Amino acid sequence: MAIVKRIIPALTLCATAGLLMIAAAPARAAAKPRDEPAAAPAVKPIDEPAAVAPVAKPVLEPYRPPLSCTYQVVKVRPSSFLNVRQGPGLRYRPVGELTVADGRFAGACSGSHGWVALKSSSGRIGWASAGYLYRIPTPHPSVVRRPALSCTYRVANLRRGSHLQVRQGPGLAYKPVGTLDQADGRFAGACSAWRGWVAVTSSSGRPGWASSRYLQK
């Protein structure tokens, strides 16, 4: 008891003098108020679309009209060729070609900005520049009907040994179906010509048309 009585007054004296330090428990970190939300990661607004890869637009095939007319290549050297492209313009890639040796081929009766839809020598459908194409005239359907052969003709104005071509229709666009020559003598033909062509019968008996320039009624 004597020791206690001596210690307490000493402690009281030290506390009064400011020499006594009592170790306190470390204070807790200041907590944020509950009404202050925690920082969230930045996100894009809903109305701002995310970046997407560009989508390539499909290449649409150009409309091709019916190939109801006949053409041949012109203004092209025999050693060269005319490009047939996928569409009506130089921006389309070539899909075939045509040459003078290809002769006649089918094409559309009307063009599109200087380009004509047609069939290439390989059979591919495409477009070619109208500046290198010649449209072969097609007679009106009504004149294709053969008139009555009520008149008589003979071949004239031909060199000896030559033959007059008889064609399937009234024009050079039609293929030959037979011939006539001076040795055939007189033969039947239509009494009137259509644009310089007369309906006749060839020496082999096949019906056709011959140029009136080499016929004498």
Protein model, in words:
The chain is mainly beta and 217 residues long. Among the domains are: 68 residues, SH3 Domains (SH3 type barrels); 76 residues, Roll (SH3 type barrels). The chain has two helices and 14 strands; from the N terminus they run αβββββββαβββββββ. The strands form six sheets. It has a three-stranded antiparallel β-sheet, with no helix packed on it. A three-stranded antiparallel β-sheet has the order 11-8-14, with no helix packed on it. Strands 2-3 form a two-stranded antiparallel ribbon.
Total number of β-strand segments?
Answer: 14
| CATH evolutionary superfamily of the domain at 141-216 | SH3 Domains
**CATH domain topology of the domain at 141-216:** SH3 type barrels
Largest sheet strand order: 4-1-7
Summarize the amount of helix as a percent range. Answer: under 10%
- The CATH class name of the domain at 141-216 reads Mainly Beta
- Would you list the SSEs in sequence order as H and E? HEEEEEEEHEEEEEEE
Shape: elongated
- The unreliable regions are 19-25, 32-38, 43-52, 55-59
- Helix tally equals 2
Q: Which whole number gives the mean pLDDT?
A: 77
Measured distance between first and last alpha carbons: 170 Å
Kindly name the structural category. Answer: mainly beta
- Strand proportion, as a percent range, falls in 25-35%
Level-2 CATH architecture of the domain at 141-216 = Roll
Question: What is the radius of gyration?
Answer: 50 Å
